[in-house]
Amino acid sequence: MASSTHKQQQHLPNLYGAIAAPPPTPSAQPNHHLVSSSDAADALSKLLHRLPPTLSLPTRRSSPSTTSPPSLSFSDPNLNHLLLSSASKLGFFQLTSHDISSQLANSAETESHSLFELTKDQKESCFPKNWPLGFDADEEEDEDGKGTESFCLDAECSTESTNLLLSSLREFTQGLEKLGLKIIDALANAVGFENPIGENPTRFCSLMWISEGLHGENKKPSGGFYPYVIGLQYQLRCQKYSLLADSGWVSVSPQVDSIMVTLGDIAQVWSNGKLKKVRGRPVACLGDGNNYRCVSMSLLVTLPIDSRVTPLLPMGVDDDIGISDDEESQARGNKEKKEERLFNSFSFEDYAWRVYHECFLFKDPLDRYRI
What we know:
The protein has 371 residues and is α+β, with helices and mostly antiparallel strands. It has helices at 2-11, 37-49, 79-89, 102-115, 120-125, 167-191, 265-270, 325-338, 348-357; strands spanning 66-67, 71-72, 92-95, 134-141, 147-153, 205-215, 230-234, 240-245, 248-252, 259-263, 283-285, 292-302, 308-309, 346-347. It has one domain: Jelly Rolls (Sandwich).
């Protein structure tokens, strides 16, 4: 070992020569070479004053201003126009007239709170484990040492325990599902494609996503993202949400007792890109850097896992009747241009698994399917 060490030392270069002394230490320097702290501060001040006026230090990114989503009502005679405008420009709106009572929404929230009071063993054993259904806990903890938790339930709010009845939550979920199907049908009529769902229970499924944890702006919702057609959230109290829309993060505050409606990625593909979307579920927050723990209930109307997602062709146009041959030819050419697909079709299961397990805060997961 000593011989090996000696050989290594022979190959090390002598940086200071054979007889050179080691470099002087600061304490060995003459006193007149030392610069006082005040002199250093003066030099730094002069340097800063010489910087170009356009050069500035980075500032903290300001939070987006809070806006009120467009309000829609099924009783409005201009519903189709307002629905198409909101859906094609923003991807979200609030429904101010509906059949969901605030009493039912409050009862459902109370039952949702009780789920998070269960022990960890109960949370893991009382709910199905058929992905994405069941209990999910985020291993990443916040400053208080608490992670985020969520439950994904089917439309029946099925559990493995006879002690968890969840009757109010079930009624609330099914009421939102019925309303969601009505909104999808209205969207199809407004945009101009045939509704592939209707009321056929084999063509859609509903997921009630209940999440709890530390929320704030630009935070990923607990439970991961999951693709959907539309999402619905009842506004029980004055509450601000952050939405990751196509235009970036948007801060909105819906009216109390309204239902916040967001269009998902499946709706955007169906409409062949005519509709904007919200990526993932809305995130409840206070804004201005404040965070707090809360429970949110999001109903997602989505597709069965074995579905295939593809752009839908517009319905037949009746207003071509009575036009000339030249006009008909021109109209057909315009339709063909409009009907060019912007997305390739893809497996819903593969897409859902990918967006659930990967973070897409900065990249649109639909980009890989764009033509």
